[in-house]
Amino acid sequence: MQSIKFTAQASADGVIERDFTLGEIPGVLWSPASGPERAPLVFMGHGGGTHKKWPAMTGRARRLVTGCGFHVAVVDAPGHGDRPRTAYDEQEIAALYRAREAGEPEGPIVVRYNAQLAERAVPEWRATLDALQELPGIGTGGPVGFFGLNMATAIGVPFVADDPRFTAAVFGLHWPDALAETARRITIPVEYAMQWDDEHIPRASALALFDAFASKEKTLHANSGRHKELPRFESDSAVRFFARHLRATAVQEV
Amino acid sequence: MQSIKFTAQASADGVIERDFTLGEIPGVLWSPASGPERAPLVFMGHGGGTHKKWPAMTGRARRLVTGCGFHVAVVDAPGHGDRPRTAYDEQEIAALYRAREAGEPEGPIVVRYNAQLAERAVPEWRATLDALQELPGIGTGGPVGFFGLNMATAIGVPFVADDPRFTAAVFGLHWPDALAETARRITIPVEYAMQWDDEHIPRASALALFDAFASKEKTLHANSGRHKELPRFESDSAVRFFARHLRATAVQEV
Fold first, then answer.
1. Using CB atoms, which residue from B216, B219, B244 is nearest to A222?
2. Which residues of chain B lie closer than 8 angstroms to A211, CB-CB?
3. Domain that holds residue A203
């Protein structure tokens, strides 16, 4: 098994930020500067076209670390951030831009490309979670959350579905096409975000993916507005969701 | 114009609870024991078959007063709490129990009865709001919230729709039949609660009522579970919703 190699460390306002690599995969781990010996981990994923230190990632991580005392990790997805694109990546990105310029639906391309990315990313994310759990501040057996919207839901649903380590997950903003069947195997508490006036994802499609989760406890948050207009307060809601579900089962109270 | 007459006062944990009457209508006003000279008001309504001091009412009021420093008022709806039932009330309540025992749909009876109750209640609620705004701690021109689920949504939608004093509203758990047309006149921020597995309100009906609100800012919270299983954390969410919308426009910051 590969191990996490820390490559840089910075600290501000009670949050320690450590860049790491796991083989070829670059990632970042945010941790509380002080606290108990061990704390729960939230594994995050970034959206399509962004990367591990995108403002949405650093903002959510800071809220989770300072608000809950959790560790938060995210890695660059294949073809994203500091990682090379394959010929297939370039082809799909070009197809997406062509559709966008022509005013044609982006959904079929995003669904197809994200499904392919998920096949490449899930084994990497599993290896990353394995390695993170080797760190003494995280360890095995403690609660683990998953937090990922857009492309990170496309990767996160198959990642979470077959891994009993997860305690609770926040998903959202995706089509059900490649995911609904897998979502039916997910039974942990889920909070799901959709945009009521999404210009890309039909309302019925978003509702169908939420409906597919087999979780006894699941909550849909639908906000007025277009695809990219998810309100900032949904990040705070996700933090409270993880506080409820990861703290209650924490090895040590944080 | 009739005035509020206070009939009893109690105080505990920073909350002053004052029973009042406005003519024949009994109500209760919860206020912060200390704070600024004026503070926003949240007007609440109770659900069908309950009353102004039902635990859900006192619990929500306490959260709003201690969490936000707001005033919170609720009155007994016609035929509820300390108020007499008419022959029509008795008839509809009997019809509801018969349907329940026979396993027949309750929806048509509840929709019809609540629409009639709304016709009786809305003028009373308007007079109560008028009178509450005569109190120096509340006053006119400040932000006003409305918070009511179930029957209180059936009364609250027509109450809020034609009254420019309201700043933000929390509704939920009702059929669109008698309400959707009126909801299309509501443009203030709305948070709407539904139960994903509601045995009385079909999913498409709940979504249709949420869709009807003309508000630029609206949020649907759909939770797994049956009609009466609304999670307790939705009360906390409503408190945060009012904190966002009433504080921002408060005459004085609270």
1. B219
2. 196
3. 5-83+121-248
